[in-house]
Amino acid sequence: MPAKYRRPLLLVAGALLVTAAVVPIAVGSASAQDEPSGPASGAQPRIVGGDEASLSDHPYAVYLTDSGGNQYCGAVIVSSSAVATAAHCAKAIAASDTRVVAGRQDKRTDDGIVLAVSKVWIDPDFTDPTKGDDIAVLTVRGQLPYRPAKVADASDRSSYDTGTQATVLGWGRLSDGGARSDTLRSVVVPVVSDSACKTAYDTYDPASMVCAGYPDGGKDACQGDSGGPLVVGDTLIGVVSFGDGCAKAGKPGVYTRVSAFSDDIAQQSQGRILG
Hints:
4 helices; mainly beta; Thrombin, subunit H; globular; single chain
């Protein structure tokens, strides 16, 4: 069964608007300003079954907001001047209105830094998360003084072995229709075999995607977490992309397979630091 879809929601001056773009529910739902607007389906838009996480352990975890400070996606530091995220996140908000918030574990604080975006690279083959190539690199205007994640490449094959324990991080909602998480959360999920993921999703492409989750569900990433990191240790192996619902049995989360795009990420993250 293919992933379900919904229109992302946009909250402007207290009014709930619906944009024209269509993106997947749950793990791939980059609802523009999804945090303040609330879900429009029965999905549980959050890091499901997880715990609070510390930026001291994961300093590369960052989130994206619009110019009004509304968080709508996650991202991950890949160099002192760039973050990687999902392409559908990069397309959700204009570059001029996008902000990268780093070093802020609790969104209620003023910790860390907020940087504007000077350049956006989106994989030229991207059309829809379920078709793959869901990767983007944002160059920030300034410098990110936090340790980046190591980007997986062809030498990191073992990180994608079935059963490998990986950690997904994000600031998604705490329950279906409930309060959003103000703090960074994480959950550990095992990498799923390509055959099992193909059974769950007809459009699964092992060359550009990787799945992670438990057969019985219960732990997953979801709305508000799109674009965030899936790491093994401090190695970035995936970026939250899409899924059918959240933490459903037989429906693991689907992530962009970062190793397939390591050369692009390296090239795009070497840009000049702008201040």
